[in-house]
Amino acid sequence: MDIKEKLKYLQGNSVSEKSVRKRTNITDINKLLKGENSENEFGSFLKITKKIPLKKKHGRIDLNMSESLSSEILNMIDAGISLPQNFDYNNLIYLDTETTGLAGGTGTVPFLTGVGYFNKDSFCVTQYFMRDFSEEKAVLFELSKIINKKSVIVTYNGKCYDLNVLNSRFTISRLKNPFTEIKHLDLLFPARRLWKKRIGSCSLINIEKNILQFNREDDIPGYMIPSVYFDFVHNGITGGIEKIVTHNVYDIVSLAAINVHLAGIYISPFKYLSDWQDLFSLGRIFENLGKIDNAEECFKKSARVSEAKNGIEESLVKLAYIYKRAGDWGSAERIWKYIINKFPHNLEIHTELAKYYEHVKKDYNLAHKVVDRALNFIYLKSELYGGISFSMQTGELKYRGSRIKRKINNSQLV
């Protein structure tokens, strides 16, 4: 949000909320937020529940595809989570917090914690709201009860923020911390691996806009949330509190939508991905997972659909390396030759092809021709564009060329 947008938001809300800014009591805020007063052994708090039908789309994502969240797919989304084969996706719980500060630290309090989970034909969201700081222990204790019923918590940047804040608050409140015994899937990292190459920033808002195609209506900017809450606690001003609650719901449902969408992509990549950069990124993910056949298909598709030269080049380079590691030298050679013809600037591939001719095919003449071709390209570029340095590549290629030349001479002596 730029300066103009911030001013517009502040101006718009300063007028529309004047009429609702007043001192409030517990009954008022419970009614305003459509919540119910809840109690446990540590006190009372406000509990808000919502049910979202799975037939309702979140942006362009069908939440009713949640059954695709098998242990096999979730273990690909995050290889470190190691879920058992019989894992039930209903044991996932999605979590997001709204806090009194954006920097974290022991003084930061999560005044609103929302959790979401799939239940039959609905996605259920439960929110625990502190109407006052004295309600924190009751909220944390109630949160721990629902966390203990699940086996995997799902967040977005929760490793760096939400769970750190909650861990601190459980310690300070001297309550047993439920997060020490539960697996954690932080979707920020899988999202970055797949979409950062194309969209850059993988903030939740940017993922919603570019991937989920979900637009928040009348949302409150995150940087305003702490001040709005302090206004409520210290002055009884309710303006903006409803928007914070809705903001938190958006966050949680978007988490579920991202997870479901990722699962669909891992199952049927070409059904959901069409941009070469996403296909290329998924190819790298499959490659790192050891699913080489899947990676090969992604790199092939990426090269075919790319309208950008660098997309074709990057995809073919990765594809050739797959063939090289598999010992399919004929396929690798074919791609390397294509690359040096179409992309003569790629000195790395010149080197790969020369190494293949020298060490595998033992055709020293061909190897020397490839090295000479690379060096001629460097000399030409240096003449046309003065100041460009290829000193490292030139030295390596000259050394390789000299060694190959000696092998040619030695073979002629035999």
Give the SSE layout.
Elements (H helix, E strand, L loop, with lengths): L2 H14 L9 H7 L3 E5 L2 E11 L3 E2 L2 E2 L8 H7 L14 E8 L10 E10 L2 E8 L6 H12 L4 E4 L6 H11 L10 E4 L1 H12 L4 H9 L12 H11 L5 H27 L1 H4 L3 H13 L3 H14 L3 H18 L2 H14 L4 H14 L3 H21 L6 H23 L1
Parallel strand pairs: 5-8, 8-9
Antiparallel strand pairs: 1-2, 2-7, 3-4, 5-6, 6-7
Number of domains: 2
CATH class of the largest domain: Alpha Beta
Main sheet characteristics: 7 strands, mixed
Helix content: 55-70%
CATH superfamily of the largest domain: Ribonuclease H-like superfamily/Ribonuclease H
Supply the helix-strand structural class.
alpha+beta
Within the CATH hierarchy, at the fold level, what is the topology of the largest domain?
A: Nucleotidyltransferase, domain 5
- Reading the helices and strands in chain order gives HHEEEEHEEEHEHEHHHHHHHHHHHH
CATH architecture of the largest domain: 2-Layer Sandwich
**Given the structure, what is the number of helices?**
17
Distance between the termini: 74 Å
* Outline type: elongated
Total beta strand runs? 9
Mean pLDDT: 92
* Gyration radius over CA: 28 Å
Weakly predicted, low-confidence segments: 9-23
* Strand line-up across the major sheet: 1-2-7-6-5-8-9
Strand coverage percent: 5-15%
